[in-house]
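ok new one. same drill as before - C-alpha cells go in, u give me an amino acid for every spot. 732 of them this time. try not to just spam alanines like last time pls lmao
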C-alpha cells in the first residue's frame, strides 16, 4: 500500500491505481456496481471521482445528464450541488476568521443587528447546526431551487431568520439548519464588503483552480448543466432544469453552488493539504484543522465546521451530502477524496452513497495486485463487466484464443496480441458459455446462454473466423434462468450434448434442469431437442451443472447446486436412467450449504470412486464430498464468494487439484491435493475477482493455466501455470 502523504501540497494528477496503492479489481467492481444502479433506475446518471494522495484513480461518468434530451453525463458535466455547498460557505467564514475579521464565538448579532433577540447564538452554532433555529425560513417553498427563493436577497433572508423563535438552547442539541448557513453567507457579505459569490470566486475558486464553480452558470455553459430528478417511490420525476435566462439573485450559501466533480475534488484535497492547494494558501493549517475537528463531542452527531464527521475521530473522515443526489468525503488517514455526484435525489441514492463509500474504502484498504512468479498474469481484455469466457483454438493457428460476452456483444480475442473481433451484436448478455463442435466439421463453435429471458444460442465458426461473420443459431428459448451450461455425452452416442439449468420459478419449465441433443443437421434446425429431466425438481435458483458417471454404471449423471435460503442451499445429483430422455432420479448430496453455486465430479482421493467438489459462491468456502456417503470435507472455508470452480491436475503430480476465484475477496487461488483429499491453499493473485473460471492450457505447454472472467473486476485475464515446471509444490 502506498504511504499517505500527510500535510503535503498535493495537486490532482492522472496516475495509476496500482501506483497509488488501490485495488484495481475492487475499483472495477465499483464501476460495475454503478452500472447496476443506472440499469435499475436508482439514478438517471452521474459522475464518480476518487483520488489517493492526489492521484486520480477513478473519474467516470455514467447514465444521463438529461433524460428527456438524451444528453449523456460526461466527466465535466456541471452538477447542482445542493448542501455539498455548505462546507464551501464554512470555508469563506474561516478565511475571515484567519484574517481576524471574525471569531468563531462571535454572536451573530455582532454582524447582523437583527439577531439582537438571539444574542446567545454564535457563528460556531451556525456552522455546527446547533443554534436552535428552525431548518428553514417560513417563506422558503420546495423544491430547493424554487425561483422565488433564488430571486431573494441574502440580507432579507438573514432578517427573516432573525425573526424566527429558537427551538432549543443553542449548543444543547443538533438540528440541521439551512437558514443558519444562509445567514453565514450574509455575514461574509457584511464583513468582507463583497457579494458572497464574488468573495468565494476570488478567495477560493480561482485560487484552487475550480473553473466551473459558480452560483450562476453562464449561458454558454447551460448545455453542460445536469438536470435534477427526484425518486421517492421508484418513479423518477424532473425537479429542476437550469434556465440560463433566469438571473439568480440568491446564491443560496446553504445549497446553491454549481460545479464539476473535479472542481470539488480539488476543494476537498485542499483540506487534506491542510489549507493549501497548488501553492495557494486558502486557509491557514489551523483553520483547516479546526474545520475538521469535532466541535460537538457532547452530542451524538459528530460535526466539524461545515463538515459532518465520522466517529471515532481516529477515522479522520469528513463528509457532506446534498439533496440533489450529491455526496463527497475526504479521508485524511487514507489520503482519499471520494465523490459520487448523482443528480437524482431519493433514499435509494442515499443508500448508493453509503455503499460507494464502503466499496472505495475497501479498495484502498485492500492490497493492490502482487505479481506471482509462479502464476504470471496476462490481461486479455479490461474495462467492462463480463460473466463468462471460454478458450480454444478458434482461428486454427495452434494458439488458444478467447471468446467473451460483454458490452452486449460476443467478442473474439485473437492470441497472442488479443486483437478484438466482434462476432455478434445484440441485446444478449451471456451469463455462461461453452465450446463445442456443434456441426461436426472439426472446428470449435461457441455456445452462449442468457439468464433471463432464457436463451441458448450457438455461433458457427466460419472458414475465416476473423473476417467472416459467425452465423447465429438458436438452441432453445423456453428454459428460463440459464445460469449453467456444460457440454458432455449425455445419451452415450459418443457425440456431445448440452446440459443447462432452468432455474427461474417462472416460465414453461420452472425450477428444472434440462439437456439438449444436437440435431442431425444443426445448421438448419429450428432448435435442439429438449429433455427436461428434473422437472420442478431443482428449486432455489440452481446455478452451475456438472456432468460425470457418479455410480459407475457407464452413464453420464448430472449435478447442480442452488443458492437461495428458501428451497435452496443444496448440492444434489441426478442419476441417469437407461433411457436419458425419461425422468431422472434425484439424490441429495448435502443440504444447509449456504450460497451453494457450483459442483463438479472428480475422484479426489484416488480410491476409484467419483466424489464431488463444490463451491458456495454466494456464501463462503470450497468443499468436497467423499463417496459413497458424501461426507463433507472443507477445502477452504474462509474464501467469500468463490462463485465458480475448476478441477484438474494443476501441479502435474497425477491427482486432482481445484481452482477458484473469490469475487468478494478478490482472490484467485488453487488448492493443492496431496492425493488423499487433503488440500493446501495457494494464492495466485490477490486483486482479481471472477464470475467464471476455467482450467485451460492457454500457452500449449502441456499444463493447465487459469482463465478468469472477471465480472466484478471488469477484466478477462489468464494466469500462466509455472508450478508444474518449477516443481514448486508443498506436500504434506
Amino acid at each position: 500500500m502506498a504511504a499517505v502523504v500527510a500535510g503535503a501540497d498535493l495537486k490532482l494528477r492522472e496516475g495509476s491505481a496500482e501506483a497509488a496503492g488501490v485495488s484495481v479489481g475492487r475499483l472495477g467492481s465499483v464501476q460495475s456496481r454503478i452500472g447496476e444502479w443506472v440499469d435499475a433506475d436508482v439514478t438517471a446518471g452521474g459522475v464518480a471521482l476518487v483520488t489517493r494522495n492526489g492521484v486520480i484513480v477513478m473519474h467516470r461518468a455514467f447514465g444521463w445528464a438529461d433524460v428527456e434530451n438524451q444528453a449523456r453525463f460526461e466527466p465535466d458535466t456541471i452538477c447542482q450541488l445542493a448542501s455539498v455547498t455548505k462546507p464551501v460557505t464554512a470555508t469563506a467564514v474561516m478565511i475571515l476568521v484567519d484574517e481576524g475579521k471574525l471569531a468563531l464565538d462571535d454572536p451573530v448579532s455582532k454582524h447582523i443587528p437583527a439577531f439582537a433577540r438571539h444574542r446567545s447564538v454564535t457563528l460556531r452554532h451556525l456552522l455546527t447546526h446547533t443554534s436552535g433555529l428552525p431548518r428553514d425560513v417560513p417563506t422558503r417553498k420546495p423544491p430547493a431551487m424554487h425561483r422565488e427563493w433564488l430571486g431573494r436577497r441574502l440580507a432579507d433572508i438573514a432578517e427573516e431568520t432573525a425573526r424566527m423563535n429558537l427551538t432549543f438552547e443553542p449548543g444543547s442539541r443538533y438540528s440541521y439548519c439551512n437558514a443558519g448557513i444562509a445567514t453565514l453567507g450574509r455575514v461574509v457579505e457584511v464583513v468582507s464588503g463583497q457579494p458572497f459569490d464574488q468573495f468565494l470566486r476570488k478567495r477560493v475558486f480561482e485560487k484552487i483552480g475550480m473553473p466551473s464553480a459558480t452560483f450562476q452558470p453562464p449561458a454558454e455553459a447551460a448545455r453542460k448543466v445536469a438536470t435534477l430528478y427526484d425518486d421517492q417511490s421508484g418513479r423518477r420525476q424532473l425537479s429542476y432544469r437550469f434556465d440560463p435566462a433566469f438571473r439568480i439573485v440568491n446564491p443560496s450559501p446553504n445549497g446553491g453552488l454549481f460545479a464539476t466533480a473535479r472542481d470539488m475534488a480539488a476543494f476537498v484535497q485542499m483540506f487534506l493539504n491542510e489549507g493549501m492547494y497548488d501553492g495557494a494558501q486558502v486557509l491557514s493549517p489551523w483553520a483547516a484543522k479546526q474545520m475538521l475537528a469535532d466541535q460537538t463531542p457532547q452530542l451524538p452527531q459528530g460535526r466539524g465546521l461545515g463538515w459532518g464527521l465520522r466517529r471515532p475521530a481516529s477515522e479522520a473522515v469528513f463528509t457532506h451530502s446534498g439533496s440533489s443526489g450529491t455526496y463527497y468525503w475526504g479521508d485524511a488517514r487514507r489520503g482519499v477524496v471520494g465523490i459520487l455526484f448523482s443528480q437524482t435525489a431519493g433514499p435509494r441514492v442515499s443508500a448508493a452513497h453509503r455503499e460507494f463509500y464502503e466499496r472505495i474504502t475497501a479498495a484502498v484498504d485492500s492490497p493492490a495486485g502482487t505479481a506471482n512468479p509462479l502464476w504470471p498474469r496476462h490481461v486479455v481484455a479490461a474495462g467492462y463487466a463480463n460473466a463468462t469466457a471460454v478458450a480454444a483454438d478458434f482461428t486454427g493457428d495452434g494458439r488458444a484464443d478467447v471468446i467473451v460476452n460483454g458490452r452486449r456483444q460476443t467478442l473474439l480475442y485473437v492470441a497472442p496480441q488479443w486483437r478484438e473481433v466482434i462476432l455478434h451484436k445484440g441485446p444478449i448478455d451471456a451469463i455462461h458459455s461453452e465450446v463445442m463442435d456443434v456441426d461436426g466439421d472439426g472446428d470449435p463453435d461457441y455456445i452462449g446462454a442468457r439468464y433471463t429471458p432464457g436463451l441458448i444460442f450457438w455461433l458457427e465458426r466460419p472458414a475465416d473466423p476473423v473476417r467472416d461473420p459467425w452465423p447465429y443459431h438458436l438452441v432453445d428459448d423456453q428454459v428460463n434462468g440459464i445460469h449453467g451450461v456444460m457440454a458432455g455425452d449425455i445419451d452415450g452416442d459418443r457425440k456431445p450434448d448440452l446440459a443447462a439449468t432452468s432455474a427461474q420459478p417462472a416460465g414453461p419449465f420452472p425450477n428444472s434442469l434440462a439437456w439438449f441433443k444436437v440435431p442431425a443437421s444443426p445448421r438448419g434446425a429450428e432448435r435442439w431437442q429438449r429433455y427436461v429431466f428434473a422437472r420442478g425438481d431443482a428449486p432455489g435458483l440452481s446455478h452451475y451443472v456438472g456432468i460425470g458417471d457418479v455410480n459407475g454404471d457407464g452413464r453420464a449423471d448430472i449435478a447442480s447446486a442452488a443458492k437461495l435460503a428458501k428451497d435452496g442451499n443444496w448440492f444434489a445429483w441426478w442419476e441417469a436412467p437407461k433411457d436419458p430422455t425419461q425422468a431422472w432420479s434425484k439424490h441429495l448430496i448435502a443440504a444447509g450449504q449456504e450460497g451453494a453455486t457450483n459442483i463438479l465430479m472428480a475422484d479426489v482421493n484416488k480410491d476409484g470412486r467419483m466424489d464431488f467438489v463444490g463451491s458456495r459462491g454466494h456464501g463462503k468456502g470450497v468443499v468436497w464430498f467423499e463417496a459413497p456417503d458424501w461426507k463433507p470435507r472443507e477445502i477452504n472455508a474462509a474464501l467469500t464468494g468463490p462463485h465458480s470452480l475448476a478441477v484438474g491436475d494443476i501441479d502435474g503430480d497425477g491427482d486432482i487439484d481445484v481452482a477458484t476465484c473469490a469475487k468478494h475477496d478478490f482472490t484467485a487461488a488453487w488448492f493443492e491435493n496431496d492425493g488423499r483429499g487433503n488440500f493446501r491453499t495457494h494464492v495466485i493473485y490477490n486483486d482479481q475477482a471472477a464470475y467464471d473460471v476455467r482450467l485451460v492450457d492457454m500457452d500449449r505447454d502441456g499444463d493447465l493455466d487459469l482463465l478468469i472472467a472477471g465480472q466484478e473486476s471488469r477484466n478477462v485475464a489468464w494466469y500462466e501455470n509455472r508450478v508444474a515446471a518449477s516443481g514448486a509444490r508443498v506436500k504434506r
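The CA atoms of residues 506 and 728 lie 50 Å apart. and btw The chain has eleven helices and 43 strands.
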